Amino acid sequence: MVLRLFIQAPYYFFRIWWCGKSKKISMEESFALIKKVTKKANRAGRVAVEAYGIENLPKEDGFILFPNHQGLYDVLVFLDSCPRPFAFVAKKEVRNVILLKQVMQALGSYAIDREDIKQSMQIILKMAEEVKAGKNFLIFAEGTRSKMGNRLNDFKGGSFKSAVKAKCPIVPCALIDSFKPFDENSIQPVTVKVIYMKPLYYEEYKDMKTVDIAAEVKRRIEKTIKEYSM
What we know:
single chain, alpha/beta, Glycerol-3-phosphate (1)-acyltransferase, 7-stranded mixed beta sheet, 9 helices, 7 strands, 42% helix, globular
């Protein structure tokens, strides 16, 4: 992936960096550029993304995607396949990774410190306000990569607080084989699947505790992974 884009990389890096710096460039324009670069990178790396259920996305913006977390490649799956602009939440350890840092700035994404409760709550409140205003987000409710292939860790209830505060649709998403492109020592062609599942709307989860919401989203994703892995 890197070798095949080596000549074009500086040009695209500069354009993404500028998207994060210029106030004249909209999020929609930034997202379109990043999607274009992601698709080029996937072709160069011989990674095919198969997306299912895109029609399940809410008609109006202001929703949060909640996928399982398999590997470093996960965000690229959504940048390739999701037709609607979104920002994402990453752990603070990756906020200074080259290119990822620039992508986060261009999309208005957040880095969260899981050890700092005050900072985490500030991020949750900021996200809730932005979601209410119509911005979409992606959050990995496991908090860290499962490192178990297509098996899941428990989903953390705290990850759903922003959705509850925003009273927004929760979109469970199932990732299959997303750990393979970056986490396996191979240059063979890879196919990754992502399934956008039917949303949970606020009316459905408003009386549930966040830990119960987390358990239900995990259950749905596990069921979907089994169905699409057959």
